[in-house]
Amino acid sequence: MSARVPPLIHHLVGRPSLANMDINYARLCAQFAAARILIAGDLVTEDFTPNGRSDSDTLTLAEKVRIIVDDNPDPNALTPVTVDIETHDGVHYEIAVDTVYGHPNNPMTRHDWLKKFRRNWQHAAHALGEDARERVIEQVENLPVIVDTARIIDDLLP
Prior knowledge:
This protein is of the alpha+beta class. 41% of the residues lie in helices and 13% in strands.
């Protein structure tokens, strides 16, 4: 697998995957992230635990991921990113991403952002509870008509 990325992206996440990566290094390692996504179909918080970062299948696959600088002249460009995957039987798949998912021009679906929010909520340093989580979602969705925004803060405190 290879990903052709603008110079800024390569500078940020083009680092090699390592057997003993700390969590911050792994979070900024495209080789590691790509391997996890190829294996599991998603990248989740658990991938960055000590066990996740040392998974031998992930590390082996990550070594095969190449992050290549493209010829984009814009030093601030984040896209396009072109991913090329070749299967064991020689079939090539390629996709160019011009607008990343989550960008205002390619926003996340409500279903996806709620799934992401709920999944991240459960990893809070202090348990905050499902009722509080659902109140926060409701209040944020109704933010233009919320009179007392301090109620949102109350639900974010243990």
